[in-house]
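Quick entry between incubations.
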Amino acid sequence: MNWRMMTPLIASLALGPAAVSDEGMWLYNNPPREQIKAKYGFELTDAWLDHLMKSSVRFNSGGSGSFVSEDGLVISNHHVGADALQKVGSKEKDYLKEGFYAAQASEEIRCVDLELNVLQSIEDVTAKVNAAIPAGVGAEAAFKARLKAMLEIESESFKSTGLRSDVVTLYQGGAYHLYRFKRYTDVRLVFAPEQQIAFYGGDPDNFEYPRFDLDICLFRVYEDGKPVKVTNYLKWSKNGAKEGDLTFVSGHPGRTDRLLTTTELEYLRDTAFPYQLERLKRREVLIRAWSERSAENARRAKEDLFGIQNSRKARDGGHAGLYDPLLMASKAKSEGDFRARLAGKPEYAVASAAYDRITQAQEVIGKNALRYRLLEGENGFTSESFALARRLLRAGAERPKPNGERLREFSEASKQSLELALFSDKPIYEDLEILTLADSLTLLAEKLGYQDALVAKVLAGKSPRARAADLILHTKVRDVAFRKKLYESGADAVAAENDPLIELARLVDPESRDLRKLMETQDEIKQQAHAAISKAQFALDGANTYPDATFTLRLSYGTVKGYQENGKSIPANTVFSGLYQRAKEMDNKPPFDLPARWQKQKSSLGMDVPLNFVGTHDIIGGNSGSPVVNTQGEFVGIIFDGNLPSLVLDFAYEDVQARSVSVHSAGILEALRKVYRVGPLADELATGKRKH
Amino acid sequence: MNWRMMTPLIASLALGPAAVSDEGMWLYNNPPREQIKAKYGFELTDAWLDHLMKSSVRFNSGGSGSFVSEDGLVISNHHVGADALQKVGSKEKDYLKEGFYAAQASEEIRCVDLELNVLQSIEDVTAKVNAAIPAGVGAEAAFKARLKAMLEIESESFKSTGLRSDVVTLYQGGAYHLYRFKRYTDVRLVFAPEQQIAFYGGDPDNFEYPRFDLDICLFRVYEDGKPVKVTNYLKWSKNGAKEGDLTFVSGHPGRTDRLLTTTELEYLRDTAFPYQLERLKRREVLIRAWSERSAENARRAKEDLFGIQNSRKARDGGHAGLYDPLLMASKAKSEGDFRARLAGKPEYAVASAAYDRITQAQEVIGKNALRYRLLEGENGFTSESFALARRLLRAGAERPKPNGERLREFSEASKQSLELALFSDKPIYEDLEILTLADSLTLLAEKLGYQDALVAKVLAGKSPRARAADLILHTKVRDVAFRKKLYESGADAVAAENDPLIELARLVDPESRDLRKLMETQDEIKQQAHAAISKAQFALDGANTYPDATFTLRLSYGTVKGYQENGKSIPANTVFSGLYQRAKEMDNKPPFDLPARWQKQKSSLGMDVPLNFVGTHDIIGGNSGSPVVNTQGEFVGIIFDGNLPSLVLDFAYEDVQARSVSVHSAGILEALRKVYRVGPLADELATGKRKH
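Done. Structure below.
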């Protein structure tokens, strides 16, 4: 990070987000008209917003996208489409890895279980929902009445419009809005590049910038067996975006925690993140060292390792952000200011008291978190086998209980996913299990102390490695038939079962369940307190704020803009020559190897054509695949990542170094025409219609 | 580890080392005759011992070796010779990487600063040393008198024999022995294989087994410009060693801590090792992730990374050993037994009280270790730049003091190495410096707390990353001329210097110095207490014990023997076909790639010829290059590593899984003849003389 650039951030924080920064994941029915007008002189019109809204697409598998032709063509990220690509492929046809192109309509492959939603309207139903709650009833009755009202509104709306209708809880209960979507379930695969170029640079370049990724995937939406004709789609910009341009992101940020109090953020910074990072790094070293011992080990641990590295990078980035004293100071200031406004007003007494309730709950959490994570969170027993043993043990105890009294993962609603996990025949590797269980038993002993009474019982007079080998070599839980039989034999059989790992789960269970209950109670206290604060905030500032992300459509805006890092300027965009340079400097070795096509077609590519770019947009996970549009509402790029400093956006907006990362519209066309030679598809993007 | 094999260990520990196990790094003048006779029925004769002693060679750069021909040929490990190989090479001739062979005497290259020592005799001078100390003097006077007596003995011996004469302190002062060595300083390089095959498998296979390393290097010793003629050299065994064979290791173990008390071991297990491992793994992830971002990064961080990985593996292995409750129980039992023997005997009152003194000192250490490591140990400021800044700052304050009152690294004796480090122009990389300093400042804040007064001053209102970038970008200490000038300008100039990193060092200095003083005092208390215990032990059991390692010649013995791991048998030796199989299963990718010669000559090699083997010998760092001999005193192999479980041998002997790892004599000959085609050299080994 470049810290001589800090002054603007202070200014931005002091003056408040509206005046200077590009903060906000705004609701389409409460867009930041004044802020944009003030900073950029640009007027957001209703027509402009309506068009962008109806051109935006939600991938229910967890991402965003947009219509880019009147013939139902939808663009999203390769990593958003990855699941669909894998499902339509086979052992012989690895579309995820090799890419895909349907030259003709008949070759477009229908995706297995992909649902797309397109938002049509938003209606504020807060009054209706609140009116349904009888005055003076308790929390539980209020919850039931509210749920009933929401279901009724949804069902009425569906009956009258035929549209998918969801009542969305915003501002943690401060407002309820009815979102109506067009649903599309016949979605067909049109084009995907090789994963190698979509995720070029792999883990080393993940969350980094400069980048050179063609992270795109194209689908076509069908209705009644024919491509859907849409009136709202994004026109392809002729020139794309350049440094300094005002641009907009329309997508579905999944979840933010912008309303955490300073005591909660300090807890994350000082306790939770350091512990999580210590464990992630420990596991990364463990699994990587083991992976390097053989190709087979590497194959077995590949997914685990990538998941750990991805989490470690994300956490490290967020943690570094929390260490920014300016960010924390601005949080403390706005919290203090807001509490001052609540003080002495009887109508906000609950919100006013909520801060201390949160602090108290946080203290209880802090005192119990380590044991909770080690025991109930299984950090002390990390292995597939222990997870199975515990599920079997608890299924015995929980299933005979009334549905409402069970641990939630044993409720009737969770039955299918429980049984899916319990009876899965995915391979579990004895050697990897011993490795991870031994290491986590060591962690348990280190953290709770070798003399701790429970640790002594868990280790049973053996070293962690000896105990882990003993448990894994003697348990039967890796046998699906054993699991099925025990699960079906019921509570008495489970209680009588003396499999060593089930016995271990049993040994830990009383304290583990107590800790879970304690932590859930504190979480509930915090949630109620947050709802009170959030409602007060909405009542006082509703018009000027945006709610935490809810995986519903939001509008962000920002400037295409580079940044400074350790005294060096990182330019706003990369170009094709940079990709080839990177491959060369990394000796074309994985994950920096270029697909054969890219090597072959190098000479035909425009080396100065932009490939990726960064901007100050306020985004978070779920925004993957969001279109970036210019003031004309034209498609200029597609979000696919945030850089490391952007990982703090979970908690607070920052624009000194935090950047969204997008594929440039010009780079997409260039690659389609020159590398993939799919002229008709490129033409469809460029003209907004398909040639028939 | 295989834990169903534990019973023999319990038996071995219960019956004591002499009866069952192969424990011990024995003195040549107190060899384990009875133990070997009892267990193996083999008689150690004086002639046998004398021959092996005089055939053994100490590499003063830190390893072992042996004469293997009457013409002064010495064999050691490639990694022992690495420093010499690098020094005689050039940019054009990278002998370390490419290997070396002198086909004729005239091609043998003289090593730059290599000194070899060959032990000729040992004389017990304990009485003489002790007699020199006047009765009733204080500790300091006793220390001075003892030192004087030792120097006189050494000087007299040198005068009368012309041999290098060292008085060695054994049993921490329980005994003093005079070691007389023949010194050789004209040592010439004869043969080295490629580093690729010497360290085959690199870090992933380091400390692991099975192994496939040709970790050898051959030198010839010259005197008066001619190869030395020796009468004591090891004959090459015709068949080498096989599973079950009794074999001996004659080498120079560097340092062991076998006499640590249980409270000290518990401290290592529960506090010191977990902290060190957390930090090592954190740094490994940091530097590795950064290395993977570019080939240049990888080049810059390569050495650091390998060092960290090597330490992490070693620590992890030692830590796992300390978690073995049987090992700890046996330690506790023998300590309890010994304390019972001391109890009530006035002559052992000091030794008897020493245990509690150690525990008390350990408690003080435990309370201060974290701050000490972070501040004085620079764990909170990890960077070359901070180390330089601190050295400059302290040189200013220390150099005007009388020599005896300075911090030891500023004494006159250390002047040369201080100035070497201070004025070295080895490159220091700004980006890597920011990376490591930022991470260690984060560690500092995490461990001491964000609210800690010193942490707040260190961070100066910035985030760790911002502060690190600020310090590294603005300090002048990376400029050699600046360092030289400031160092030479003296105390006042240093006191007036406001370079930001020197200011940081100054800020930390008062507390850091206090912590150092406190810790050094506790170490001194422990050292004195250990000396008292050790002397009592020697007085009571001298004849039956061996002292902690002192980098002087020791004899170990053991069986060539495989072991069990996670329910699998690891055989005692590997063969050439295993090497090719390993290369194949790892796709011949680094560090598993075979040198070109080895690929080319594959068909001519005997695939069943043994390459490496393991044994139960009691070894530790410094034993690298030690010859392994059979009962006939013939060379059957050369130690080059220990497996992971052997890393606990620092603290206690273990023979369930701990194994020495050697190159097999047959494998050496086979490689020399068939891969390197150096028949004359192979003949010299096989016949014990060079053809002229």
